[in-house]
Amino acid sequence: MHPDLETLVDLHHADVELRRFDSELAALPQKKAAIEAQIVADRAALDAAKAALDGLAKDRKRLELEVQDFEAKRSKYKGQLGEVKTNKEYTALLHEIENVEREIRSREDSILEAMEKVEGGQAKVKAEDAAFKGLEAQRRDEIKAIEARIRECEGGRAAVAATREKKAAVLRPDLLTEYSRILARRGTALAEAKDGACTMCHVKLRAQVFVDVKRNDAIITCSSCSRIMFFNAPPPQGAVEAPLPH
Ligand SMILES: [Zn+2]
Q: Which of 98, 175, 179, 208 would you call most buried, defined as having the most Cβ atoms within 10 angstroms of its Cβ?
């Protein structure tokens, strides 16, 4: 391969990699923020459920105090029954006692209702609390993995950027200018030629152009997308693929 073309291919691969790192580095903080927001939202829901439970316990306490007050009133009225002088007063007192007893019964019903709700609510909140803790630990692990990946990408990006800088420094200035111009306009400056076509714009190359590109010994641009073309020789027939590292 022509050394200039080889450097251009290296630059191209470096730029493709840099872009991949950049897009990942742009997406990762958002992913992390979304997980953090989920933790906050789940915690708020759990706190609200706990607050509702506390509210029920307070309601019950208030109702019990009211029952005590009414019971005191009932004792007082019952005590007065022996002291009244007329039937009318006696009937009026009985009526008052009935009223007080109705108030007591209604509050006792409410207390039972609150107790049932607290009982069911406590089990529910306990389960939710355990689920939240499990999920939170899992989410914290996810966040740690994202943070590790961010550091990995930053390190990888810096290494690729340094390599790119070295390659750019040895490239002919006019070629570097040309490369940068196409890169700025097209997003990628090079295109692999494969099966007689440009793989970026998919336009069929003239037969002679494809033959020339396959030699990899000159700077040839695609007549359609103006990217600099290169050719990757296919591996020889029957070649054994290297095993993947474990
Ligand atoms: Zn093209």
A: 179
